[in-house]
Design goal:
Shape: globular
Distance between the termini: 12 Å
Radius of gyration: 14 Å
Strand order of the largest sheet: 2-1-3-4-5-6
Helix content: 10-25%
Number of helices: 2
Structural class: alpha+beta
Largest sheet: 6 strands, antiparallel
Length: 124
């Protein structure tokens, strides 16, 4: 079991907002891309993710459009989770209540792996 996370370079600024799920981040193919692709199979990270993923609940007052910074593909792309830098989350385009623990798992995973890209390692 693994997670696939596609995210934007944390320092990249774009002149437009990239929403979700309409926008499909391009899979990075070359060094210097502003997009990064992680395939995470570390059992602790995957278990932490699923434990918190199961706690997601619909937020009828949540935003349906925001600047997406990361997409997480769950269960071999059956579900798409989109997040911004403020913890707002969409699950298959439906707003979810804030889940600080899930946000932390994704942010920590990105932070731990971002520097590996600069050295050429792209999976955990």
């Amino acid at each position: 079991m693994y997670l696939e996370i596609i995210y934007r370079n944390p320092g990249a600024l774009l002149p437009m907002t990239i929403g979700c799920p309409n926008a499909k981040f391009p899979v990075p193919e070359e060094k210097g891309s502003i997009y990064y692709n992680l395939k995470i199979s570390d059992k602790k990270i995957v278990n932490d993710f699923y434990e918190n993923y199961k706690k997601l609940r619909h937020d009828p007052n949540g935003k349906t459009y925001f600047d997406t910074k990361a997409q997480v593909y769950v269960e071999n792309r059956v579900d798409t989770l989109c997040m911004n830098n403020f913890g707002q989350t969409l699950l298959n385009g439906v707003p979810q209540k804030d889940n600080a623990e899930l946000f932390a798992v994704i942010q920590d995973t990105i932070s731990q792996n971002y520097h590996k890209f600069k050295r050429g390692k792209t999976s955990n």
